[in-house]
Design brief:
The complex is a heterodimer of chains A (about 270) and B (about 375). Chain A is an alpha/beta fold. Chain A has helices at about 40-55, 70-80, 95-110, 130-140, 190-200, 250-255; strands spanning about 5-10, 10-15, 20, 25-30, 35, 60-65, 85, 115-120, 140-155, 155-165, 165-170, 175-180, 205, 225-230, 240. In chain B, helix 3 (about 90-105) crosses helix 4. The chains are: A alpha/beta (about 270), B alpha/beta (about 375). The interface between A and B is large, with 94 and 98 residues. The structure holds flavin-adenine dinucleotide (FAD) and adenosine monophosphate (AMP).
Chain lengths: ~270, ~375
């Protein structure tokens, strides 16, 4: 039986291209390409795996972002996603996790029926992991966060959560929301055929007017938190003292003298 | 449930008082990240003459309530029910947000563990407030009792201070392994209360059908880490890494490609998509130090790099550099450490032999002291 799946994705600067200054440790995002947030690629793949097993499944991908986030959505469609919606509006700018979750939940409410919502565990640029469970709360549905695998069976949804102290297998009734771990699976490549289909089909663009929220509920105005200041984390000055391979005794002496190695006394 | 509602500002902000901490537990014991909330929570609460209120959930909470009080909570509330044995989002979120309505805490802290974050996201939305994730510094500004929540961003390069001035409670999750576990005091004074919880059936629909405990390598609280990278050349290279680790009581870390190649388990991975560590000593063997790896370890107190490339990026943040083949260095290093350790053992056994008679002498003298 087919399921209705919604995947929430975010476009982020490619962290492998983001250059960190080795002296100041500040980040130069300017040059970086925009890509799909890595965990969201795994969320897309998880949705596609469910579709592979459950013919008739429909996948809709949504993102709240600037107009150029369209590329990320087209990329998803080229991998086999059926429908893509870009929710974009000047009013959304500067949103923290609360209005982001609200905007996405309102979008999903407008889309209507769904069985599973997928999100990434967290985004590389804001790395809170709050947006997924926040959406579940706005919609009043169950959730399973930090999952490495999930599947649909006998009308239930199962998910494996990776916790610090163990692996938990969850059984839920749809509708529910699942967040997917980075590296949970191997995201498939786009195919040329699907790419052409995606270009033909195109994506839908929605604005604030489509989702029935008030302008001061979203974006910066709707954000409870403000960033007061940023400071570079003061790095310890590192000497880079050299020892050669024949000086290991001397090296260990120094480590012990400086209290760096204590052999379990501390 | 929240419904599609905006982050509403409460009109009675001044009614919100005290610091509340959620003490995550498993099997009737508060876990370390929960205890860490007590030290930072207490120091903020006491700075503005308020109370630290600890909250804990479980099948039975008697011993946890005691634990929380003795570790430094001024007031402890424990909710008990067979339905609270394991962490489940909806029952936990519902009880905790009802308690927020009842007690109106100014600040709510939750450990930034996976279950902690799962919970915090929902509480924030339900309480229509903001939450700052994964903080490494927390303080309170006595003026207006504003929480100053600081968290690393942009790959640990900057620290952002985030405020939530006009919504309550001010929420933060705190990164495990950063704040100290307070000292436990058997004679601590605290108020405590165990409440029987009644959980609605509809909140218990999510079933935990299986739990497999794992003895994971929790690198985040490791004091010593020896890490291997692609420079090992082959999976068996990790034997050498393990040998050094055993010698100094360290955990084994790894760069991502070694994990991707299946040389070692994913839970050893350090970096942006692995664990963020800050041990006392980090020994990087055959690791180039690409940005994504550095993000996860550059806050280590002491960094030692063993690498054949004198220009490896990791060297620029290393305290010690050994510019040579790790297959030559590691056996020699292990050997030197063994030698040093045996010197230590000899010294301390000599010391013990010397100490004894001295002690006896002192006691003898005491005894011989004439009564006054
Ligand atoms: C989105 C994203 C996320 C990522 N997340 C992570 C992450 O979490 N963690 C992570 O580690 N990486 C991560 N990476 C990968 C990262 O960019 C690097 O590719 C990786 O860290 C390099 O691993 P390495 O240092 O082991 O290998 P290499 O870069 O190949 O370095 C091997 C080093 O070994 C040295 N060497 C070779 N032979 C010897 C020898 N015999 N003795 C001593 N030294 C020797 C070489 O000089 C070299 O410096 C991520 C990448 C991306 C794109
Ligand atoms: N603007 C957005 N549009 C769509 N999905 C988002 C957006 N921001 C965050 N998400 C989803 O929420 C997850 C967690 O993001 P974060 O809370 O920012 O760490 C991401 O992996 C996405 O799946």
């Amino acid at each position: 039986m087919g399921l209705e799946i919604i995947v929430m994705i975010k476009q982020v600067p490619d962290s492998s291209e983001v250059v960190i200054d080795p002296v100041t440790f500040t980040l130069n995002r300017g040059a970086a390409r925009n890509v799909i947030n890595p965990a969201d690629e795994n969320a897309i793949e998880q949705a596609l795996l469910i579709k592979d097993k459950n013919p008739g499944t429909n996948i809709t991908v949504i993102t709240m972002g600037p107009p150029f986030a369209e590329t990320a959505l087209l990329d998803c469609m080229s991998r086999g996603v059926d429908r893509a919606i870009l929710v974009t509006d000047r009013a959304f700018a500067g949103a923290d996790t609360y209005p982001t979750g609200l905007t996405l939940a309102a979008t999903i409410t407008k889309i209507g029926k769904f069985d599973i919502i997928y999100a990434g565990e967290e985004s590389t640029d804001s790395s809170t992991g709050h947006v997924g469970p926040g959406v579940a709360e706005f919609l009043g549905i169950e959730q399973a966060s930090y999952t490495s695998n999930s599947w649909a069976e006998d009308g239930y949804v199962f998910a494996e959560r990776q916790l610090e102290d163990g692996v938990e297998t969850i059984k839920m009734e749809p509708p529910c929301l699942i967040t997917v771990l980075t590296n949970a699976n191997m995201p498939r490549e786009a195919t040329l055929r699907k790419k052409i289909d995606a270009m033909k089909k195109g994506i839908e663009t929605w604005t604030l007017a489509n989702i029935d929220l008030q302008p001061d509920w979203v974006g910066l105005k709707g954000s409870p938190t403000v960033v007061k200041s940023m400071r570079t984390i003061n790095e310890k000055k590192r000497e880079g003292k050299k020892f050669n391979v024949d000086e290991m005794d001397k090296f260990v002496d120094e480590l012990v003298e400086k209290g760096i190695l204590t052999f379990g006394v501390d | 449930m929240a419904g599609l509602i905006n982050a509403e500002k409460p009109s009675n902000i001044d009614d919100y008082k005290n610091v509340m901490v959620f003490l995550e537990a498993r099997d009737g014991k508060i876990k370390k990240p929960g205890l860490e909330m007590i030290s930072v929570g207490a120091s903020m609460a006491h700075k503005v003459n308020e109370m630290l209120i600890g909250i804990t959930f479980g099948e039975s909470v008697g011993s946890m309530v005691k634990e929380a009080g003795e570790y430094g909570c001024d007031r402890v509330i424990g909710y008990e029910s067979p339905d609270l044995k394991d962490f489940r989002t909806l029952p936990y979120a519902t009880l905790l947000s009802d308690l927020i309505l009842e007690l109106k805490p100014n600040i709510l802290l939750i450990p930034a563990t996976r279950n902690g974050r799962d919970l915090a996201s929902r509480i924030a939305v339900r309480s229509r407030t903001g939450v700052t994730a994964d903080c490494t510094e927390l303080d309170i500004d006595p003026n207006g009792r504003i929480l100053q929540a600081r968290r690393p961003t942009y790959g640990e390069s900057t620290l952002a201070e985030i405020l939530c001035k006009s919504h309550r409670p001010q929420m933060a999750t705190a990164r495990p392994g950063i704040f100290p576990v307070p000292e436990r005091k058997k004679d601590a004074k605290y108020e405590s209360e165990a409440r029987k919880a009644k959980i609605k059936k509809e909140f218990m629909k999510k079933e935990i059908v299986d739990f497999k405990p794992k003895t994971t390598v929790d690198l985040t609280s490791a004091k010593y880490i020896v890490s291997g990278g692609l420079g090992l050349g082959k999976a068996s290279g990790f034997k050498l890494i393990q040998e050094l680790a055993d010698e100094i009581g360290a955990y084994v870390g790894a760069s991502r490609p070694t994990v991707d190649l299946g040389w070692i388990g994913k839970d050893h991975q350090v970096g942006q998509t692995g664990q963020s560590v800050r041990p006392k000593v980090y020994i990087a063997c055959g690791i180039s130090g690409k940005a994504q790896h550095l993000m996860g370890m550059k806050l280590s107190e002491n960094i030692i790099s063993i690498n054949t490339d004198p220009d490896a990026e990791i060297n620029s943040i290393s305290d010690y550099i050994i510019n040579a083949d790790l297959y030559e260095v590691l056996p020699k290093l292990v050997e030197a450490i063994r030698k040093k350790k045996s010197e230590f053992e000899m010294q301390s056994s000599n010391k013990k032999a010397e100490e004894k008679p001295v002690k006896e002498n002192i006691e003898e003298k005491k005894e011989k002291k004439p009564p006054q």
